[in-house]
Amino acid sequence: MSANAPSIPGRVASAAMREPVEPRMKRPIDARWYRNVVIGLLALFVLAPVGLIVYQSFLDGPFFSRRTSVSLDAYAYVLSDPTFYQALGTTTLFAFGMVFVAVPLGGILAFLLTRTDIRFKRTLEILVLVPMFISSIVLAFGYTVSVGPSGFVSIWMRETFGFVPWNLYTLAGIIVIAGLSHVPHVYLYVSAAMRNLPSDLEEAARTTGAGIWRVSRDVTLPMVLPALVFVAALNILLGFETFGIPLVLGDPNGIVVLTTYIYKLTTLFGVPTYQLMAVVAMVLILITLPLVFFQRKLLRNSRRYAALGGKGARATPLKLGRKGQAIALSVIGLWLFVSVVLPIGGITVRAFVNAWGQGISLVDHLTLQNFRHLLDVPSLTRGILNTVLLSVVGGAVAVFIYLLVGLAGHRNHTVSNTVLDYTVLLPRALPGLVVGLAFFWLFLFVPFLTPLRPTLIALFIAYLVVGLSYGLRLLQGTLIQVAPELEEAARTSGATVGRTWRDIVVPIVRPGLAGAWALIMIIFLREYAVGVYLMGAGTEVIGSLMVTLLQTGAMDTIAALSFISIILTAAGLMLALRLGAKIHD
Fold this sequence. Notes:
By secondary structure, the chain is mainly alpha-helical. Helix content is about 70%, strand content about 0%. The chain has a two-stranded antiparallel sheet.
């Protein structure tokens, strides 16, 4: 995904070159100083929580306790706990199972929507990405009320056929649901690779009599294999980090993954067991960090292959024909029904009824009481307002900060850019739950940060770190659209790097920043795991409230909050499209 940046107005460049400029000799010093400051501050915000996790894992109690000492007892406990190995094994099966579900489906959708003349392409390209913008905990709840044991569809199946042929609360069921919800991630990267491919080989195969599916298997698939390997690695990484779906669908049946294992360790002995949580967090970091760097290497290779295949290539869509159109639309329609209609439809129905079950007419139980309850409970009302505030205002501030970081790496080919890249990648290896836990410790027990703990600033900083990799990639995609010759023209006239950025780069990319803001706003809207530990009186957000409410079984309230979350996400998505953000490449 990227935000649009318009063509460069020449008058901006000429105006910058006519104005007085700083002496040229200051340029390298200014740039180096700025980059060093940005990298230093970034490292502080990223490495501080990670360092605290590492430190806490080698203690025998909370790091803030005077009686705590250095010890390996926490490692000894976790590594001898059968539940830990059960969670590790389940997480591994879950992550690789997601790959087997998401990658083939995402690849098929990408092929149909980018390489064929399928109808309604523009609309379908947007609909296919919808699950990616919705919080996973909201999606999981939607499946619970639609196809869970007491879900609307399950009740209809039982009344009509006498049995329900699926069980949502099994590892297989969780893998399928998680895989379906991650299909958009596969589609996003594979479709980008496919758009850069030439169509000559596909057309040649069709002229020899090969069918559309054989063309996709024997011609298109080998050309996009690097992108497929990349998204497979990405899904394994996401599988190890997933929290919401295993919590909602796995917890009722005792299915534990590493993230939910950390969550359960919170009060294992009646008091917070920070050292045990830190050890499991360390295990997750040791697993996911290599995956992040492997993923980065794969991305470079996939871009290289796409560039070799796509420059100047013709992109003639393959003709599906009447029968092919029907099959292709049926495949996409079925996926949309299962991945979008079922969870969102289930939430919509559940939010407006106060009772359901076998033999109950939903029409007789329509109500707005679920939403009135949100207004009656101050914490729930604050949660909605805080979510909007963090996403709208926080998203705008985040864009500004990500822009400052992006400028530090813009046209920078020195060692400092490599350091910047790897610093930005580190939060990508941390599940949101772990980041929230680390910042909770920082804000609660580091004296000069303690005043920030009961404010939304603490939550915003954690959001900022979690979204760093995505936000920077988004801003870099916007900055790179600035023609380098304009910057070079300003530099040769004596402008400093800072002056060039201020008078040339920033004015040009300003329209693209609006689209970036809308997309980051959606990311902040769907975030929930970060706030699980940071949430307190006054810092509630929708996602974190849902995690808490799950423990109490307040289904009416969860349904109303989920519905509001979907409405807010839909509004954010429409705004992003209106502002010109490209969500399909």
